[in-house]
């Protein structure tokens, strides 16, 4: 008879769950991971990887078209079928054999099925065959069940079989006409991708494009979407949707206008996978986000239940969830061994960067790379700030990078401490510039010391020198 007692049980084998399990096993504990779909989670098959694969070829084509010599060598349009084919391979053709082998090599036990918490430290796993296996944890249960697309209560929307990020990321063909509801990160990226692949795209940007970012980021992306032929309807709200017998969708806006399309993509945010997790058995409410303390412990449960990644709503990004996973995995090991746990600010087991230094790249045209606070968020937090802006296109490295390079950079300085609390870079290929900014923000590097971090000439990193010069010594 198999022994189903482990030191740690992780529910959800997305990037976050995998990293928690790996970390505790590396620390000498035993771990089981429970997964109902594909090992690797949303990120691997329906989110980060396939969507970036959908965007990358068009970005390379745009880059070539901005350079004399290269431009002349580009003789055709984007090959949509080839892009979809490359995307398939980045989604591992929706097979998880590779990730399952990795789990085996890492010494993590896999239990396939729906995981439900039945009582403290006990998880029941019901497989596709209907058989339920009971697992018991000696030390901790970690929920890393992620999120799914939120479908708003728009009349007729659900019945119209809308696309969510999943259908967009795994599309087998390019719709002729696509309406996108929401212009946050998913909406902006998918509008960029499908416009480049050949769809006629309309974006209903009720709250503007990328409203969480610095305003210039949304303005630049809006402009380039429009240049690419996308209709961006700022302030527009869908009030009803209907799919007709011929398969076309009709999206009615507040005000009565109707837009007809082949598909409608809903991209208005996420909802946690906690509805069917047994939360009612431990006094929590199914469907709720799992609120955690600074140690990622589920505040309302007890000392054995943790939540990491999307499901705790701190930051809905893979790299940040994996950061939580490393800190949490190490803390669980330390507690199990009776060793000290340091969850004080920037401590070994803390997730301080979640509040102060979250990097993100939005892979639109132009790319938007940001870390830390926007000027608005820093102001709202009561910081005494100074905002420094610079035209990224006027840096030598950028003008070499592409003719007519358009971009902008902003740093937000906390004047009381003379450290940078936020940076936003907008421009082609700024993604790889971001980590320097992340180090400056997370390291709280004093501005006086940053003058000694000399950017190589002629690279786009010279933007750092220009921002410092504009700020003044
Ligand atoms: C379209 C799109 C693009 C994105 N692009 C990026 C990007 O470029 N960069 C980035 O950093 N982030 C990106 N994100 C966000 C990123 O996908 C998430 O932050 C990340 O997947 C969260 O990881 P996770 O492990 O917490 O959850 P998930 O990846 O959602 O994994 C959770 C796993 O738990 C399983 N599960 C759920 N409930 C149960 C249960 N009861 N029992 C058993 N198993 C269960 C699920 O099947 C799933 O495999 C994107 C998101 C979307 C929607
Ligand atoms: N490159 C990346 O890092 C990347 C890419 C995609 C997704 N993600 C992550 O996935 C998460 C989900 O992305 P998302 O775009 O679904 O959510 P989001 O929160 O980024 O954007 C949703 C947008 O929809 C708008 N909205 C809300 N309700 C609406 C309604 N009823 N009608 C019209 N608009 C409405 C909001 O104003 C918001 O701008 C994000 O938190 C993001 O961090 C990251």
From TrEMBL:
One of its GO terms (biological process) is 2-oxoglutarate metabolic process. Residues 358-464 form the Pyridine nucleotide-disulphide oxidoreductase dimerisation domain. Its cofactor is FAD. One of its GO terms (molecular function) is dihydrolipoyl dehydrogenase (NADH) activity. Disulfide bonds join 43-48. Residues 6-322 form the FAD/NAD(P)-binding domain. Binds 1 FAD per subunit. The keyword Repeat does not apply. FAD binds at residues 52, 115, 310. The keyword Ligase does not apply. Keywords: FAD, Flavoprotein, NAD, Nucleotide-binding. Signal peptide: none annotated. NAD(+) binds at residues 182-189, 269. Belongs to the class-I pyridine nucleotide-disulfide oxidoreductase family. This is Dihydrolipoamide dehydrogenase.
